[in-house]
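S1.2 Input.
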Amino acid sequence: MKRFAFKKVYLFFSSLFIFILHMPFVFAKTKTAVGFFDNNASVHPIVAKDSPLVNNINVPAEEMNLYDSLRLGSLGLARQAFDYAMKGFSVMKAVGEISNDHIISIIDFSKPSSEKRLFVIDLANYKLLFNTYVAHGMQSGKEFAKQFSNRPESNKSSLGFYETQGTYIGGNGYSLKLNGMEKGINDNANRRAIVIHGAEYVDESFIHSQGYLGRSWGCPALPQRLHKAIIDVIKNGTCLFIFSPDQNYLSHSRILNRPQGPMMAYK
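S1.3 Output.
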């Protein structure tokens, strides 16, 4: 009986010792499988190491993965446009330049005006709210916007990051003021009266007749049937990013090329 009791005690402590040895591996596997969680406990995959912005700025993983989860690529939004938008959004948020960080709007001028190139995204609820047409300036190009300017009376579009402001009723009806956030690139937006408004020439009938939308004097004009609803969603302190793979802009943007460091100014 004593030998049997001793054997049971020996087996118990041997099993306990083996279990303790395996504990670190159990927890390591559990941690790897969990990933990232939002407030609703839904899982977001970890950002891939080869993502172009992973090593440049701390963009939340769930925001980076919106591109895939909302299938923005299949809708025509360039990955480069989205990545730059989220990087600049994070910079503006970090330095307190936007008061409403739930919404971001991206205009992708790498696409022709015959394609829906405005994307309004609800970052708080992970939803694509609007995807529609948007016009560019008449001197920026016909089908594609290729030339850009910050100069008054240039009738060209300006690239870069904007903060949306308040609304007003003007010559183009219900309109939204924009504050250009990039010195020398779009900071003349108010002086140039660059605003978001509706326009009859932003319509598929124009695309069918001439192959591209009508053009503005530099404003990102929207379809008449949607502009009020869009303006009401993005007004009062949200981020708007107008993108083009224009090397002059990409190399001179103080927001996109902001050095790393807490609260470092970019102006």
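S1.4 Remarks. Residues 23 and 97 are 47 Å apart (CA to CA).
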